[in-house]
Write a structure and sequence with these properties.
heterotrimer; B: mainly alpha; Arp2/3 complex 21 kDa subunit ARPC3; 8 helices; globular; C: alpha/beta; four-stranded antiparallel sheet; 39% helix
Chain lengths: 262, 190, 285
């Protein structure tokens, strides 16, 4: 029988379906790599973080996730750039001020802006590498096969699965309440009053399901025996295992190097 | 500690509630996030550990579905869950007045946790509406950390008080048939 | 010995409001039982007791108990419980585990939890997929399926646990006739020795799947017997209405017991005649 693979298109995820080498890598290897990038984002100097972010983005484009990278980086970095420019370039009294199109801009402030932007870009691009190429189902199977507690796996899987049906439900409630004359565009006070009318029915419905869902889990033997059997766990290899070990060992050196550098 | 299946299911639903209620807040254009109603709900019904876990996982799931930078704020959500659970244990969710006080305490302490993340990781800005307030405060001569603290405190206080009030309203209306299964909830009964 | 014994069970969610009042019932291995009754008659609650979903937490019997092979539910370990009875409820989406991102993973979830060897899990799942006609849906997200498909999936997931009994609580409740008939046809393909307990407020589907009928009325069992006697019982007519009783009587008259699960088309004149025959006792059940 063909092994079922999640198509990924059913959920509002950042995941981009694909078969690149990054997609095929064991999720644990990718997780460890993200950890390395996260540490690097804090210890590298500005040029290093920007290079790291660029490298991660280029890898993401090669893996076919270019669009998500572009959209996500733009969404996060644009408002940050504006805010950092205003606060650090213009307002906070950083040194080295010069005249720039009639504005008094601090060069140190701009350098600081790039420092922060580089770090956030590296963190974001690094985690996007993982998120865009790893379907949660594969992550959970990888964790599951390494003996990760199934209760925790459930707490990641279930919300992801329920998010779509509940958002649909919330929309239906919004339509119904609007039809009954609920004003979503009035003054702040009317909108604050509209808020509970929208979410109370939703939450009441959501909580009403709990007993039944718990019984279904128990009925299917959830956590009945200490170790569950995981079918088709993501393939792993000795090379990946060694890569993970090496990366983990290098992290303390990374931190020590970063501290000495300053 | 092993959470029973019912608590696990409650937590999973609460994570969805966090996300969807946050979405509804955007629909009605509230200037607040209101993204921890589920976390406080779990904390009242099942205690601080379950509450903290719900908060942390909510940020993680945000990271997976929309914005990986949201994951950076997981310590804030964790503290919201822990505090709500501790306050519930000493009976602060028994009356509406105490609930407002609980919201204020959670608002102040979670802001204290958020400030270092905002200042050291993001350089004092977040790319959201509070940046205007921060910029204004810096412009009138406050130092950066102080400006970030004031701007976020005002917003977060309102946010957490509203969050706690909503959670309180919900648990008050829960049928006995539902709430009797959660032993921790006894701390919040009148 | 009976597989499941309900022994003088009295139970209510709130004190002094019994939902079940002195229920006694024996279910033998391989029986196909329908539990019928109006809304609020206690069907769903009785189904939950039979399936071991009750007692739980603060919900305990005020009198009596349910035994499986002579042991109460509390006396059984988690694994034996799951391999004894599986339950499929009314609302399709509620039957999904919330653990699986594909239909295939939903079916292998339960056997995987029992720690079975991979070969056996795959064999069980493939049998369940074939029985419930799900082969074309295996890679879909369970939450994106239609209600009918979700209900077939939850039956497949239940069957993969290889239970001795299957309890279904209004499984076709919100279905259009076509989805209902697909599910009923599938019921005919279930393993022969499987005990089935089908609870419903409608008369048609249970008459297809069951040969023993229980009528639940105001927390008590008021009838226990075959199809003909059930249709002739005065409370059946009061609860389900004359037209519904006449309709199924006609169907019963036409086919004796119709095979294959599909409800055949129904004719008014035949129904009236058949209803008379049922009342006179000339139709064999």
């Amino acid at each position: 029988m063909a092994v079922a693979r999640p198509s990924g298109s059913d959920h509002a995820l950042l995941y981009v379906p694909g078969t690149s080498w990054l997609h095929r890598l064991n999720p644990m290897t990718k997780l460890v790599a993200v950890l390395w990038i996260a540490v690097a984002a804090f210890v590298l100097p500005t040029a290093g973080t920007i290079a790291l972010a660029g490298l991660a983005a280029a890898t993401g484009i090669l893996a076919g996730a270019g669009k998500v990278f572009a959209r996500r980086l733009a969404f996060t970095l644009t408002p940050l750039t504006v805010a950092l420019f205003v606060v650090h370039g213009l307002l906070v009294g950083h040194g080295n001020q010069t005249d720039w199109f009639g504005l008094t801009v601090s060069r140190d402030g701009i350098a600081f802006m790039f420092h922060i932007l580089g770090r956030i870009a590296a963190l974001l691009a690094g985690s996007l590498l993982f998120v865009t190429t790893t379907h949660p189902a594969r992550l959970l199977k990888a964790l599951d096969s390494k003996g990760f507690p199934p209760g925790m796996a459930y707490l990641i899987a279930s919300p992801l699965l329920l998010l779509d049906p509940f958002t649909t439900r919330a929309r239906a409630i919004r339509e119904a309440q609007s039809a009954r004359g609920l004003d979503l565009n009035g003054s702040l006070m009317t909108r604050i009053r509209a808020f509970p009318a929208l979410l109370m029915p939703l939450i009441t419905l959501a909580l009403a399901d709990i007993d039944h869902r718990a019984q279904v889990l128990d009925g299917r033997g959830f956590r009945a025996v200490p170790r569950r059997t995981v079918l088709d766990p993501p393939p792993d290899s000795p090379a990946q295992l060694w890569a993970r070990r090496l990366i983990l060992i290098s992290i303390p050196f990374q931190i020590a190097g970063g501290l000495l550098w300053r | 500690m092993r959470l029973d299946t019912r608590t696990l299911v409650l937590m999973a639903v609460a994570i969805v509630i966090n996300v969807v209620v946050g979405q509804i807040a955007v629909w009605v254009k509230l200037p607040l996030y209101v993204d921890a109603v589920g976390t406080v709900l779990v904390a009242i019904l099942a205690g601080p550990i379950a509450g903290a876990l719900t908060g942390v996982l909510t940020n993680l799931i945000w990271g997976l579905v929309s914005d990986p930078t949201a994951a950076a704020f997981f310590p804030v959500s964790m503290v919201v869950g822990l505090l709500a659970g501790w306050l519930a244990r000493i009976g602060w969710f028994r009356s509406i007045g105490m609930t407002v006080a609980a919201g204020a305490v959670i608002g102040v302490i979670s802001t204290i946790v958020a400030i270092p993340i905002i200042v050291y990781m993001f350089g004092g800005v977040t790319g959201a509406g509070t940046d205007f307030a921060t910029a204004y405060l810096v412009a009138v001569g406050h130092e950066l950390v102080r400006s970030v603290a004031i701007a976020n405190l005002v917003q977060n206080l309102a946010d957490k008080i509203l969050t706690c009030l909503l959670a309180w309203l919900i648990v008050k209306r829960l049928p006995l048939r539902f709430s009797s299964g959660f032993a921790f909830f006894a701390h919040s009964k009148v | 010995m009976a597989l499941i014994e309900v022994d003088n069970l009295t139970f209510g969610y709130e004190p002094d409001a019994p939902v079940l009042d002195g229920i006694t019932l024996e279910i033998a291995e391989g029986e196909r039982i329908a539990i019928l009754g109006g809304n609020g008659s206690g069907k769903s609650t009785l189904a939950q007791w039979i399936a071991g979903w009750l007692p739980r937490g603060a919900h305990k019997a005020s009198q009596g108990e349910v035994r499986v092979n002579g042991t109460t539910w509390q006396g059984l370990d988690a694994r034996t419980r799951t391999e004894t009875v599986q339950f499929v409820g009314q609302v399709p989406m509620q039957q999904l585990s919330g653990f699986a991102f594909t239909v295939w993973d939903e079916i292998v979830f339960g056997p995987g939890n029992l720690g079975l060897p991979p070969d056996e899990i795959v064999a069980r799942a493939e049998r369940a997929v074939a029985m419930c006609n799900l082969a074309h849906l295996l890679e879909r997200d369970p939450f994106s399926l239609s209600g009918g498909e979700q209900q077939r999936l939850s039956i497949a997931a239940a069957l993969a646990m290889q239970p001795r009994a299957l309890v279904l609580d209004e499984p076709t409740g919100n279905f259009d006739p076509e989805s209902r008939d697909i599910l009923l046809a599938q019921m005919a393909d279930l393993p022969g020795g499987l005990t089935t307990i089908w609870c419903d407020v409608a008369l048609g589907p249970p008459l297809v799947v069951a040969d023993r009928f229980l009528l639940l009325d105001e927390a008590r069992i008021v009838f226990d017997g075959d199809a003909r006697a059930f249709l002739a019982h005065p409370r059946t007519r009061d609860i389900f209405g004359l037209p519904a009783v006449a309709e199924v009587a006609a169907l019963l008259a036409k086919a004796g017991r119709w095979p294959g699960g599909i409800l055949p088309p129904f004719d008014l004149d035949e129904a009236v005649a058949a209803f008379g025959a049922v009342m006179e006792g000339t139709i064999p059940a």
